[in-house]
Amino acid sequence: MSHFTSRIYNFNAGPAMLPTEVMEIAQGEFLNYQGTGMSVMEMSHREKHFQTILDTAVQSLRTLLNIPERFGIVFFPGGATLQFSAIPLNYLQPGEFADFSETGVWAVKAMAEAKKFYPNVQSVYDGKPNAYTEIPDLTEADIHPGAKYLHITSNNTIYGTRYSEFPKLSKTPLVADMTSELLSRSLDLNQFSVIFAGAQKNIGPSGITIVIFDKEKLPEVKHPIPNLMNYALMEKNGSLYNTPPTYSIYIAKLVFDWLIKKGGLSVMEKENEEKAKALYDALDASSLFYAPVPKKHRSVMNVVFKSNEPKLEAEFLKGAEENGLAGLKGYRDVGGFRASIYNAMPKSGIDTLVSYIKHFESSKA
Ligand SMILES: Cc1ncc(COP(=O)(O)O)c(C=O)c1O
């Protein structure tokens, strides 16, 4: 049982590290939010203080991502997985289909969910033979005629890959699961019809998912669809169709404030690239550890690495934990290690990990 007296470097993939400054503000306001005499957790979602939190969150997100007015922004209850069903139900009429780029478990799961209602869904890429270490270079020519959209996972949390450039489609709408990278890089929303992200990486606590969608490209839904998955209804009700996860939205708002204060997403993107480079450089220089993903496909958020001597893995992880470096175990199907280095991971966390990697390696030389 570890017993740290201060916060440690938490490399978990999600739920993940949140900025300490945000946690401190939440702590300070926990019992009595801005003189209301109650916690945000205890407040009515129909009351003006919460409405201000929600409105500010939406506005800040619009500013951060430079989201055009024609895009709706909705906080959905539930994880990103719920959107694997919601998207086809909103965008496909019975008998229609969409294309999927299978770059990992999350795209495979999204396709399987869509298939339950739309059996004709198609795959445009299967990364399984390459153990999901690569990202395809997709264009309109790869899309099956008649596909209503292409679904991609922009950053593959498990395998440590990402689309450094998004598919350039001339007519097919692009839908992107950005769960493990939203707010880590700047985006041109005009490239997308829908982007969505579960909150538990770069946004806040698990249990909410942000969906940003082009209202002009949303078809009218004529078939039955659960209200809580209905984009038009949820947007019309300003994320308040039912009681939303209010406290999670409040934390997300604090994270957005923190990002704006830091200078926005271009500053964050640069910081994130520097952090990832420092770690990948150390791995590329190591004779004991290596990154299995080719350089051009490497994720900036989830750094997957392995050891040439798998028998040392348990010892490496144990030593890491003892040094305040938590959550480095790789995903069960991939093995090895994974350092998830979201926005909240400071550069000092990377430096400490790199020193530990070097120290461990020299102790085995
Ligand atoms: C890229 C991606 N999509 C979807 C999910 C599923 O998210 P949730 O557990 O919120 O449903 C995850 C979870 O880590 C993820 O990394």
TrEMBL record:
Cofactors (names): pyridoxal 5'-phosphate
Domain of life, source organism: Bacteria
Keywords: Amino-acid biosynthesis, Aminotransferase, Cytoplasm, Pyridoxal phosphate, Pyridoxine biosynthesis, Serine biosynthesis, Transferase
GO cellular component: cytoplasm
Annotated residues for binding of pyridoxal 5'-phosphate: 80-81, 106, 157, 177, 200, 242-243
EC nos: 2.6.1.52
In-chain residues carrying the UniProt-annotated modification N6-(pyridoxal phosphate)lysine: 201
InterPro entries associated with the record: Aminotrans_V_dom, Pser_aminoTfrase, PyrdxlP-dep_Trfase, PyrdxlP-dep_Trfase_major, PyrdxlP-dep_Trfase_small
Annotated positions binding L-glutamate: 46
GO molecular function terms listed in the Swiss-Prot or TrEMBL record: O-phospho-L-serine:2-oxoglutarate aminotransferase activity; pyridoxal phosphate binding
Cofactor note: Binds 1 pyridoxal phosphate per subunit.
Principal EC category: transferase
Domain Aminotransferase class V: start-end pairs: 8-353
HAMAP family xrefs: SerC_aminotrans_5
UniProt function note: Catalyzes the reversible conversion of 3-phosphohydroxypyruvate to phosphoserine and of 3-hydroxy-2-oxo-4-phosphonooxybutanoate to phosphohydroxythreonine.
UniProt record similarity statement: Belongs to the class-V pyridoxal-phosphate-dependent aminotransferase family. SerC subfamily.
Subunit structure: Homodimer.
Protein name in the entry: Phosphoserine aminotransferase
Origin species: Leptospira ryugenii
